[in-house]
Design goal:
The complex is a heterodimer of chains A (about 120) and B (about 900). Chain A has about 120 residues and is α+β, with helices and mostly antiparallel strands. Chain A has a single domain (about 5-115), classed as Winged helix-like DNA-binding domain superfamily/Winged helix DNA-binding domain (Arc Repressor Mutant, subunit A, Orthogonal Bundle), CATH 1.10.10. Helix content of chain A is about 55%, strand content about 15%. Chain A has a three-stranded antiparallel sheet with strand order 2-5-4. The relative contact order of chain A is 0.16. Chain B folds into four domains: about 1-75, no CATH class; about 130-365, no CATH class; about 370-550 and about 790-920, no CATH class; about 565-775, no CATH class. In chain B, about 50% of the residues lie in helices and about 15% in strands. In chain B, the strands form four sheets. In chain B, strands 14, 15, 16, 17, 18, 19 and 20 form a seven-stranded mixed sheet that branches. Chain B has a six-stranded mixed beta barrel with strand order 3-4-9-6-8-7. The chains are: A alpha+beta (about 120), B alpha+beta (about 900). At the A-B interface, helix 3, helix 4 and strand 5 of A face helix 1, helix 2 and helix 4 of B.
Chain lengths: ~120, ~900
Amino acid sequence: MLRGADLHRDEIPPGTLYLLILKTLARSGEMHGYEIANSIQRISDDVLQVEEGSLYPALQRMLIKGWVKATWGTTAGNRRARYYQLTATGRKQLGVEMSQFERVIGAITRVIEAI
Amino acid sequence: MNWLRELTRRLGMLAHRRQFDADLQEEMRLHLELRQEEQIASGMSVADARAAARRRFGNVQRIEERSREAWQWPTLESIWADVRYALRQLRKSPAFAITVILTIALGIGANTAIFTLVHAILMKSLPVADPKSLYRIGDKDDCCLTDGLQNENGDFDLFSYRFYQQLRESTPEFAQLAAMQAEQNPMSVRHGNTALAEQTEFVSGNYFSTLGVGAFAGRPLTDGDDTVGATPAVVMSYQAWRADFSSDASVVGTTFYLQSQPVTVVGIAPPAFFGDRINANPPAFWIPLSAQPLLNPANPLLDQPAICWLYALGRVGPGASVGPLQEKISAILRQWISTQDAYTTIAGSTLAQRLHVVLTPGGAGIQNLQQKTGKGLYLLLAISGLVLLVACANVANLLLARATKRKVETSIRMALGAAQRRLIRQMLTESLLLGCLGGLAGLAVAYSGTRVILALAFPDSPHSAIQATPSLSVIAFVLLVSLLNGMVFGIVPTWITSHGEPAEALRGASRSGSDRVSLPQKSLIVFQAALSVLLLVVAGLLTRSLQNMEHQDLGVQTTNRYVLHLDPAGAGYQPEKLNALYEALERQFSAIPGVQTSGLALYSPLDGGHWGFDVAIPGRPEPRPNQNCESLLNRVTPNFLETLGQTIIRGRGFTANDTANSQSVAVVNRAFVKKFFPNEDPIGRHFGSYDKEDIGAYEIVGIVADAKYTAPRDEAQPMYFRPLSQWQYELKDPVSVAIEAQSHYITAIMMQFRGQPQNLDASVRRALGNVDPNLTIIDLHSFDYQVTGNFNQERLIARLATLFGFLTLLLASVGLYGSTSYQVTRRTNEIGLRMALGANRNRVVALVMRGAFTQVALGLALGIPIALIAAHYIADQLYAVKSYDPLSLAVAILVLSAATALAGFIPARRAASIDPIRVLRNQ
């Protein structure tokens, strides 16, 4: 038995994981890792699936670069979780990533439409 | 500044590593649990839900690893892997590795050895408290006993005891002002059964407190010790205490006999303390100034306002500034001189107005050795720096060639997807490793090198204050240089090759396409050739200068001659006992088996001693204030000149008939005649040397050939000889009386043997013992040893320069050989093709040789002008060689050409043996 969801899930394009995380955080303020993963999946209508684990190295790198900051808090189910939040640098970076993404997508679209 | 903040965050992470791991694990566990719960809620079994959550999450361990990597630099493991890889690569080409390591070792070793010396001699402060606030009154290396007026510009740097006392009272700007004897003398020392000669120095009582030096055992000298009367208190050096008195703590507080006078050793100086100046033979005893008359009764100096024999070193108090202080002391000096009877001769002269002192930083003490050796040492440092440059060029060349050889390998790895950064890191690891290994080997070279250099430069110096161990800072410097070396010369070739187009390299490794390395390689060879010729020319000049100096006619014979130095005052002889002593010594020494002749003298040629007097000739006008009337004096026994081989040209030498009761006589040398009697016959003429006290007292009875007694670089100085047996009892002025007495104390006995002497040491000891067991040997050497000892530093510098010159030549040749071989390999196809088209082997050899010689010729064109300029700068280090010396230049060019021919011929022959058929088949 094939399940529909499995059929249509695609790996996210390389290099866009930062963009997705940044955008998700920008939209929702504070989130922990599980919420970020779910959010990306839900908003993309289950098309984009993050290999959930890879979220964490990405978050570490973003912490190093100072794009996000993390604080420990409690979830609705009263469990300890690390909440991530955009910093000012992160907000700026979101702009950079967005314009870069648009440039690439635009270019790809033009190539495809030319053919 | 983003990277800075990033660095801080990374460092913060390193500091809280455990916390970080715990956080990450908790976070990931939460994620898995939440996912699992969600699956269970959608109806899965617990086991399935867990499996699904894990599947979606990915490999937990790997993700943890990746998260950690995000924070860290390449882990130790991966660096270690690089190092192991580099070691494996080096083991695969041992010839390359050894050549590079040896090259770096020699370059760095030579440099470090010389730098260690420069550091030890020129840059070290005295091991005393706060050396920065010490200032010396004076800036020259004038010495021993003068009237202070030795410098025509009025620079005053030697002081009498009286003036020192005056200065201490009138300069409160000095928190403390110490005085110390300019000359350091050996004295005979007796303690229990031990009798030996030790170096000593008279110092003021506040010497140790001025320097801020305490005592290792007992106590240092104090002002209280510097008073006439009581048994003098002295301080012994730690080195002498350890070497000569076996570190026996019980000697402190006991009585020693210095020059047969009892003194009390009150303390041992700290181990690191060697006195107020760096030299090879530092004092073993520091004695208060007040004891000078007691230990040298023939020549008491304390009450002599015009006998200058002290240096002054003081600690400037807070708030005092040096400029005004210097002016103040100069003014005090001029004022004081004008009140002294002894200086009435210069009253009102321009010299009297010009008198001044110069204050110099005294943190390094009295810098006589520094002034003497500074230029030579800096010359050596410059030379060794050039050697290092050449070595670096060579290493760069070798690495370039290696990188080129590995171009294919690199290209394949890049084509297979190796990151450029990773490749660079690996190659850099390799060159850094080479740099470090070379640096370590260099340290070993430096360590042994410095010891050898010191032993050559300062022989017979068991207690030398010049420490040759490379200090920590030197070692750090070396390692830094090696790392830089590895980095700079690793990164360039790595960069060049890792930028190659993999596809191009793979297409045809042996094909000559664009060649990125041959221009830098050739430039390096030109550079090396230029430096080689420079160093060879400098080495040639210094060697020729040394040869001229060693083989010059000194005017004396050295074969089978031996010199004994001794000190009758040390054995307690008073002036009236000297005549009898000398007769006994002459008898005993001429009776030593094998001795042909022997003679006694105030000093012997080139042993460091000299006495100068102003000569006055009756009937001549008063000399002008600046007119030089100086001549050397030596007092000798009748056989002395003959023993030396200094021949009497006219008239007669001294005989046994020249006694205290006969006419005072003198024998003068040619230079004396030239200076004082240029157009007259001097025989029978009279002159005197104690101003108005002995006008025309001595009659010239003979003329002797010139001989160099003081400076081997200068012309023989005017000199007159007087018999030891004659005394001028008519002198009244206490200074004259003291000098007359002192000039009768011999320091040297010269012996000429018929052949090689047997048991020299024992015979001399027996002869001395027969006369008086209290007479001790200060030293006993062959005359040749004493003479050549004057050239120790020149010889050392010339030999090191030659060594460095050939080292450079060797390195340059290796470099040329390597680059020519590389060119031959690269041009194999071209050469094969030429041969297939009819070029014969000779033309191929010529082709390759032409390439090598072109580079060297360019190097010569660059190097010869530089060498000529450099030669001009070292002209004052040369003796009897002009700085433009065609011979040195020709030899340098010849040697370099020969080396080029050799280094070029081997690859050229290989090129000529290329088989055209095989080359064509390979095409």
